[in-house]
Amino acid sequence: METSKYNHTLCKVKENKQLTKDIYKLVIEGSFKGNPGEFYMLKCWEEEPVLYRPISIHHIDENKIEFVYAAIGKGTKLISKLDVGDEVRLIGPLGNGFPIEEIKGKVAIVTGGIGIAPMEYVIKKLKDCTVDLFLGFREEVYCIEELKPLVNSINLATEYGEIGHRGYVTEIFDPKGYDVVLCCGPEVMMDKVLKMCKETNTKIFISEEKKMACGIGACLVCTCKTINGNKKTCKDGPVFRGEELEAKGEVRC
């Protein structure tokens, strides 16, 4: 692993495994830092596309870092073609993650699609918590087997599949009775969960999914509107407190 003064780290791929049709798990060798909810910028090409791609931390241990990502654009599709031993350049950790020390008691984690990616690392760092998962997928489910021994319950919803509730995850989630809610996924889903939590006065942390260019707060591509004015998702977030955000139709990202 080679590190430059600009914190660009050149590492080797240990594994790049396809989980479902467009979802992959990338494992990179090396010693890494990062808090739950933070992310790295990744790049494995020399020219086009110019920009790195932001991917949240799925897990870190002594000798590797893991990323779960959706191969849906040019950059992530190039990442999906990496083989064992190939090199990838990383910048990070970046952003502000979940305030683990503030999350106690009965916790609900609500995700949609690739929003599940950062939650394994989050759960493993939580202390004094009972965790229920509410996971929404379009069709195929992924990443749940490793989560089963870590949580109290897993509640599934699939839009078009035959696993769990047929419909949306917001149809099976109720914030009543929870001390804290953690949420990540499509904006429409997160907005609904945010509104539900505000109605029940339930504490919530939202991990925003935004397109990013620089990842360090310089370009303003990922600007997010909050009740305190514009914030940079990559630098001020991606995790925001629910009280900073308003439900759709008012002030919203």
TrEMBL record:
Residues the record lists as binding [2Fe-2S] cluster: C214, C219, C222, C234
Coiled-coil features, chain-numbered ranges: none
Cofactor requirements of the protein: [2Fe-2S] cluster; FAD
Alphabetical list of InterPro entries matching this protein: Cyt_c3_hydrogenase_gsu (IPR012165), Dihydroorotate_DH_ele_sf (IPR037117), Dihydroorotate_DH_Fe-S-bd (IPR019480), Dihydroorotate_DHASE_ETsu (IPR023455), FAD-bd_FR_type (IPR017927), FNR_nucleotide-bd (IPR039261), PyrK_electron_transfer (IPR050353), Riboflavin_synthase-like_b-brl (IPR017938)
Entries under PROSITE patterns matching the protein: FAD_FR
Superkingdom of origin: Bacteria
CDD domains reported for this sequence: DHOD_e_trans
Cofactor note: Binds 1 [2Fe-2S] cluster per subunit. Binds 1 FAD per subunit.
UniProt key word Acetylation: no
Keywords: 2Fe-2S, Electron transport, FAD, Flavoprotein, Iron, Iron-sulfur, Metal-binding, Pyrimidine biosynthesis, Transport
Domain FAD-binding FR-type stretches: 6-100
Complex and partners: Heterotetramer of 2 PyrK and 2 PyrD type B subunits.
Xref: NCBIfam families: PRK00054.1-3
Physiological role: Responsible for channeling the electrons from the oxidation of dihydroorotate from the FMN redox center in the PyrD type B subunit to the ultimate electron acceptor NAD(+).
Protein name per its UniProtKB record: Dihydroorotate dehydrogenase B (NAD(+)), electron transfer subunit
Source species of the chain: Clostridium punense
